[in-house]
Amino acid sequence: MNLTPILTPLILGAGAIVVLLADLLAGKGNKTVAQVVALAVIVFAGIATVAVWGRGGPAFYGQVSGDGFASFFNLIFLLVAFLVVLTSPSYLKRSGSNYGEYYVLLLLAVLGMTFMASGTDLLIIFLGLETMSISLYVLVGFHKQRPRSNEAALKYLLLGAFFTGFLLYGIALVYGSTGSTNLEAIADYVKAASTPLGGYMGIGLALLLIGLIFKIAIVPFHFWSPDVYDGAPTPVTAFMSTAVKAAAFAAAMRIFYHPAMTLGIPWDKALWVLAVLTITVGNLAALSQSSIKRMLAYSSITHAGYLLVGFIARNELGASGMLYYLFSYGFMNVGAFTIAYLVNRRGDGSYSLSDYAQLGARNPVLALLMSIFMLSLTGIPPLAGFFGKFYVFSAAVQAGYVWLVIIGVLNSVISVFYYLRVMVIMYMREAEDLKDLERVPSVGFAALVCGLAIVLLGLFSGSLLEVARNSILTIL
Amino acid sequence: MFPSLNHYLILSAALFCIGAAGVLTRKNAIIIFASIELMLNAVNLAFAAFARHWGDVSGQIFVIFSLAVAAAEVAVGLAIIVALFRHKESVNIDDVNLMKW
Amino acid sequence: MESVFFVILAVVTVFSALMVILQKNPMTSVLFLILAFFSTAALYVLLSAPFLAAVQIIVYAGAIMVLFLFVIMLLNLNRIKEEGSPLLKALGMMVAGMLLVIAAVVIRSTVIPSDSGFVAGTEPGFGSVEAIGRSLFTTYLLPFEIASFLLLAAIIGAVVLAKKKL
After folding, report:
1. What is the pTM of this model?
2. Could you tell me which CATH number the domain at C1-83 has?
């Protein structure tokens, strides 16, 4: 039996159980053990991912494929998870919900994601998505003492389960019109079919797409995300806005980049409208936010829209640009949320922008890092955020979507306003009462890693794009 | 021949839409949940009908997994409702008003 | 014979589904949900899926519904009144009705290549415990294992959330 394609999830699954047991043996009150073991599991899984990079091939009756595409996404999930685990304990301690189960659920969520990226059968993708979602419903509500966290969890769960119904109906219709849930078998059937498969197949794929873009929070299926991101524990928000979107994009690319899946339906026109709406709505809403957590939530909607531009382009540069974008976006957003958490640590959980007054004087390093994240999210060269946008936009121009790119660039200009506002507040505004920032070494370290990664990914953007380009060969 | 695949599919679609209507119109989280279960049940019926149509057991296998997923979602969902009830003494989603629905 | 059963079961299922979403009292609503699940289980038997019928009753009508009723009684939810806005109700019904119309049109207009497999019935043993078990532990071994992690996540999650003190 060829276990190479599922090596990463195998380590994560075994690791989750080890964390559970280690937490039990360490006894109450000592949660550092669980965190350290979880970090070790993630590092180990990361090493394994790199060691078997792209050498997995199809396995388990063609249900999974450990190709470069899966490896690349696994690395994104693991890096984000590593940073999130690093920053979580201080939040959990303060919120009074410092339980080892947090890390177990996080590892299981990543396990689900790896199957979304490597699954080549709709059943595997569905189960991966649900493993991820169920872990996330709990993680969103993990801050039990805070009603907002509970409400966010309920909202996410009810809507998530509702859209699971649509996703599942979509799979049922695809299965019904082709007789298989395996992507290769479906493609073979579609190619060989004498009668056009318009009806069921088209609606099935549309429902499948709706189920996936709900998880990415594309307009008009975005309405849950600001509230859920706001209510969830901040490290979980960072995780959701990066890794979950990446996982859902991975599944969407795996399914819809297959040439047979177009069926002559103009997906690009429908997605064109959604992309424009997503970018614009996210941007305009972000402008008026006074809480940095909500602002970042809306900004993550906008970034999902930019990624959708790359998705629509449907060419080599678009796909590899998306991979680059998702990779660097993980660092940017996790970094920004980390600093948002550090700055508001003493606050009342309102994450007000005014807390940033004079941060430049109070803590120059933190302010510098936050500036890097904001500039990168805006897309200022030579930071990684610029190249991500540049690649997906040039891919769209290559594919002939000039207007889409013009709208995207105009929106990028609007976004300068709310990203730079944070910097203006940090360096220009006078603070009324200066609060000392508590120093949390592990969280600071995570922010530093993110900042360095963004600068380095910007400087060496070509090499990462090259890796991404080699990773997408199997899916295009 | 009656009932054919189409009759099962229409029944399944009707159940799915009734479930969706329940989610969209009701306010009680428990009933919304029950409506979601109706929707998943409708999809399972479609899967079973397609499995019979193709004479292929994999459709039935899919139903088993979707049952497992539904059970897991219910367990977590009801746990969230219990946790929420400790704070609010209500399962009416309009009372969940710290955030807009 | 099959057609008579189908009509009866279809009517019962649709009726109880409607009652689920129309009842004021969550308890009644959930009891009708059980009825809907039972009649769906009977439909599975018609679709030559006896194992699914059994699983449906054990998992859905058994486990899931007990959980529902348990929570309703634990939280004493029957006394809670809900006030829905009529506008929202009408809107929701309209959306659902539109979905149904679209579905009906698509189903009617879709020509299924050959319906013979459905009519002729299936080979003996199709959908039996043996057939399902064999394929569950060979072809579908990997999904089976993923499902075990999914259930692990759900167990841990439910305990973490519902337990007062961990």
Report:
1. 0.94
2. 1.20.120.1200
